[in-house]
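USER: If only I could read backbone structure tokens as easily as an amino acid sequence. It would mean a lot if you studied the pair and described how this chain folds. Here is the record:
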Amino acid sequence: MNETMVCVVGNVATRPVYREMASGPAARFRVAVTSRYWDREKSAWADGHTNFFTVWANRQLATNAAASLSVGEPVIVQGRLKVRTETRGGQQGWMSADIDAVAIGHDLARGTTAFRRAQRPEQTAVPDRSEPDWDSAPADTTAANEDAGQKPPRPAMVT
């Protein structure tokens, strides 16, 4: 419940690695986020510090990310931030910042992309989600409203 949600804008730094796990597909890649600032002395934009995050994606997001992302592409990643401290190679205090991704997309402020809906392997019957006819009430609603002492719905206005 009390998770730290972040949204980072950066570039894909490593090729996505895709794996089929027992719990479903999983993918990971690194994203580089470099801050930019205006250098008054040089009167030009300058790059600041670069942060690297390991992005983890699961299920359909993993499949789509692995098929869509390449090194160097600008991306936006939204997800849960997880900062870990470990001991590696005898060195204590090694930190990593991971993002458990909820959404990943190309940054359209820096380029264009073409969206293709992914086809799911199992196609089930799609329920009817057409818009209801708001101009007239169903016949049984009017009778139920009159029995309850309510006014029937007003007819649609014709202009």
About this structure: The radius of gyration is 25 Å.
